[in-house]
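DM from R.C. (forwarded with permission)

"hey, sorry to bug you on a friday — could you get me a structure for this? deadline for the figure draft is monday and I only need the backbone to look sensible"
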Amino acid sequence: MIENKTTEFKREYADNIKYAVIAFANTEGGKIYIGINDNGSVNGVENTDDTMLRVTNMLRDSIRPDITMFTECAVENKDSKSVVVLTVNRGTARPYYLAGKGIRPEGVYVRQNASSVPASETAILDMIKETGGDRYEDARSINQQLTFEKTENYFSKRNLPFGDQQKRTLNIIGADGTYTNLGLLLSDQCVHTIKLAVFEGSKKSVFRDRKELSGSLLTQLEDAYSYIDQFNHTRAEFEGLDRIDKRDYPGEALREALLNAITHRDYSFSGSTLISIFDDRIEFVTIGGLIRGLTFDDIMLGVSALRNQNLANVFYRLKLIEAYGTGILKINENYEGCAVKPQFEVTDNAFKITLPNINYIGGRKDVPAVAPPRFADKADRQEILLRLAEKQGYIVRKNVESELKVSQATAILILRDMVEKGLLIKEGSGKQQKYRIAE
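My reply, with the result:
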């Protein structure tokens, strides 16, 4: 091992590591090995946790713009000694610079051979021109070991091809042949999550249930809707001899609010999309305020400016969305004639949709007994299924649908959860798939 344009050695952590980080981010990327001498011999790092913490703090405090999403810090074993390896990818917001120096030659560094040197003013201007129009979904993904099992299934079900050519057309693979952040969002390795919580009553004081969804955004979309559907009760009303079933929340309004939260959020931030379910409402909180130049009145009229245009295009091809800018209008249309209306709130960095419970009259206990049977919580549902599995020797998905009066998607989610918790064991596949009680 020798130092070169993409490799830097440091015997121990020192503050001047930041110069190499900036140079790598502005040039072709590279790796910094902490615990290796200049001649390539291994010195090792005694306290790797402390060193990694100092590196993380340096990245956050000393370098602008935020470089953390393009770096990865790990510990490797070399010659039976621990070495901290900081991987720096070429950033998409070049030029990167020292927080205290600004975008000037004394603050911007590039890599020349095995040295980190100040950039010329011409080089700085070239970087600004090159990266001025970059968006998060167009940037290169740090993780290039991506799989697309869920996305491939979605395309296959709709008889759409999903090979390398389609990935390039959809911008899942960029012009340089590497996966983009859009690819990361649609991959099974997606790092962004949706957090759901169910609260007792109308305040965030007592939790009834909570769940965090991960994986491809398509998996999260499917699982989130199925989870919410468990709490979308049905109220029965009678007009003469006719019985009319009315759900707490219009299905299309839920779908549009969920799609809006996933399609329009700002994925350059690491926080989760939040969905909170109360007795009287459901709240969808999305990271990312309005796009510059767009006002609140504009979106209420159906004007749409897409933050994630390529992601929206994928959803459009999969027929998950019909047209751009119609989501808010559809939500409002679903509440026409209702005493309660949806609410929309926006801040500089967040967007919130609140869907009111149409049937709410002071508490769930007031829902008539004639409504289809619902089960108070997850434990009740699991107990019913375990008793049935014990009686029959096994259960299948259709047993869950009929016993709990839930949809196919919800039944799959419930069975998956019970398998993950070790309550059931899955046997077989396809039509022969059965679930037995775990020993």
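R.C.: lifesaver. The longest strand covers residues 71-78.
me: no worries. Residues 363-376 have pLDDT under 50 and may be disordered.
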